[in-house]
Amino acid sequence: MSRIFVISYRKCLGPVGGGTGVNFKLYLANRQYGLLEDCYHIFMDKVITPEMDQVSYSRLGSNAKAPKTGLRAILSRMGMAWISKHKAYRKRIRSYFQELDQTHRFTAEDVYLFQDVESAYEFMKLFPYCKRTVLIYHQQGSLYNEWRSFNSFDLPAYRKYLNRYSEEAYRKVQVLAFPSMGAKESLLQSEPYFEKVLQRPIQVLYNGFTKPSLPDDSDAIKALRQKLEGFDGYKFATVSALNEAKGVERIPEFLAQVGKFHPFRWIIVGSGVKAAELEKNIEKYGIGDSVIWIREPMPHDDILKIFSRTDHYILFHRFSIFDYSTIEAMSYGNIPVLTPIGGNREVIIEDNGVFVEDFGSAEGFRQFMAKAPLEELKNQNRQLQERCFSDEAFLRRYQTLVQTMQREVH
Hints:
Helices cover 43% and strands 12% of the residues. It is of the alpha/beta class. It has a 7-stranded mixed sheet with strand order 3-2-1-4-5-6-7, with helices on both faces. Strands 10-9-8-11-12-13 form a 6-stranded parallel sheet, sandwiched between helices.
């Protein structure tokens, strides 16, 4: 029987978002259901083997970056400097894979599930005889678009370099997959350059989540609970990096309209390059007294505890793939309030949430909330998430793909 390698050249941070989170959540789901035999999970800082019983992971750090000064500031605005940095990163990946090969001896019979572009590209360059390859693309739009969302300037040379690099990976991998059809749409929306290479067939591997047992409340959750006790208005949650793709800074205008007909509290967990703009808009629209903003990273258990105490999950993406946080929140009964783009259209599928296009109007939201009691709407989302986006459903999609590839003869 061939082995399965799930690979993401990122730190193992546990059940977080993005490709590294999908890798770890596949491990957790498979530990429970055992559908993938002889499965290894490779991260840049550890390899989880089938024999391991206990797995630790690094704590998620802040994504806030100190402003660059001096020469670093000059270089940060030069495309060639970023290209050189990326090439050095690629070299580290190749060295790591060569080291792993000494232990695991990668073979043509094995199946390789890459959760990021660089892992796929560099592995295929090193081991061209390994043909059973899958790239599951998790970025918010193109690689350059995601980089751009964390930076405030354009570098055409870097864009051209990343586009050509990605294009080769998309072309050479045996199976190209996305966590939603909307993720593919977001990639094309951000970069029409890929129109031709993405005409190939793709697979959709929706993410999944099943509520775990949670520990006792942390001090942070106890403090939050005290702030929410006795409040009977709507409670909104947003857990996100504050960048261009996520569009969190667009939410205050909308919530100011909600506040005209119903009291609310908005809990934000996140930081990033759009933090200053978000803060400005909270003040501009006069909702500061209704906002609880947690800027430091929180343990995943605490985030789930927040979802267990809120009513709506709100995020106004500019580019959307298929956010884990959305289905996590839905599992606790949160009603999604989202922009109608990308993967968002694949979670509001049974009139179970609200799409918002005009941030200056909450009339559609008001009408939706008037159609049924709050708890009925919340329960609708719990049932939908459990039926369509559970850990088991998530794992079975991967199992089906792997079994198909194992049957194929190269």
